[in-house]
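Workshop exercise sheet. Pairs work together: one partner reads the sequence aloud, the other fills in the structure field after running the prediction. Swap roles for the next sheet.
Pair: D.N. / O.F.
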Amino acid sequence: MRDRVIVVAGAGGPAGRAAVHRLSAAGATVVAADVRPVDWDLPGVHGAEVDLLDADGTRAWAERVAADHGRVDGLVHLVGGWRGGRTFAGTDLADWAFLHDLLIRTLQHTTLAFAEPLAQAADGRVVIVSQSGARHPTQGNAAYATAKAAAEAWTLALADSFEGTGAAATILVVKALLTDAMRAERPDAAFTGFTHVDDLADVIAGLWDRPTAELNGKRLDLTTA
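Structure field:
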């Protein structure tokens, strides 16, 4: 990892922080991007305040990253969030508008901005985190599951564009993410099937140790790991 430059989008969230720490510990140069400023006191980590809903701004930032570091070897897209309700009929389409921007539009902007340098990298990697409900949606999660399914489709289209290169676009599937704070709040809860953010970070870091053919266009299910 020592010579690799990896961009983490959504770095300020729990999963993003875990990924940044893990990649930094492995020796990577990490560009940690979030919509809000985050102070990073980690070796090789460069913070970036970026509005990923601004297409032109995202592309200009991606060009600066490539110019400043000479390469881009990975994009870890961890911009996330949830909104939902109890019934299908009670779905608020304002939730859909929010999730469309958060889960789909940010992914579109970052992947379009970084696709070319990632395809040129010897082993470029793009990874998103999806949720099992994308293929088995419940009525109260209609907007969320639809947004996740769309993000998966977009990532698979990116994977198709990577065919014939050393790059791979991969979907990691979780039931839900778990943090130490969640365990502290509910010490007796089993959290069955949940994926701890530190375990997620380990899987992400390990993508560069796996062959492209095992990863490109693949959904890796972490709910049974």
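Discussion prompt: The chain has a mean pLDDT of 96. What would you look at next?
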